[in-house]
Task: structure prediction
Amino acid sequence: MASSTTPTLQVCRDCGGGAPIDAHFCPQCTKILSLGRHGDYFAFLGLPRKLQLDSADLERRFRDLSRQFHPDYFYNATAAERRASLERSSYLNDAYRALKNPQSRLEYLLDAEGFGMKSPADASKAVPPALLEEVFALNEELDDIREARSSGTPPAQWKARLDAARLPIEAKREAHQAQVDELSARWDALVEVGASAGETRDVLQALRDCVLERNYINNLLAGIERELNA
Result:
């Protein structure tokens, strides 16, 4: 389900032979391949573009490739091979960091599919429609709590109100996670059957909305923590 512009072949700079984009060593001369333009983190690790990954399998693939690319194995190789080893080792580390965490994995997938966020700042500016009611109620309660705190209300009282204000936001976070899990399962099922871009668009858009909501929920909870520590 990669973009139609994603390359499917790479050329070995040593022998000029062609290799699949997800190959790490040339099938003809066995030399390590220069990284160049790669498909994506999933393909690099030999994984399908799924959101529900086996963490043990991901770890095993990472360790196996780490050994294959380790610069020590290329100590006496050509400068080009040493450079390719370092490039692939660095890219592997980036891929592993992005895919081992479910949240960063989701954000990476959305970006790879053309549904990424413009920036973290842009993503947190607008209140997601699904959170409007909670945000309005929380802001009113925080204003009342600040007023009570400044008027000398005992800390135990206004902190209890903050704890109570946190509950509906945390409940929203749990409901949000259930929605992400359900959409992730739908996405993986579409990957299994090789669905078209038209069939996956709605799921990707819904997942993108979930990321926006998650970021905003985290900001709300961080705001409550700041009030507690004020």
The longest strand covers residues 9-11.
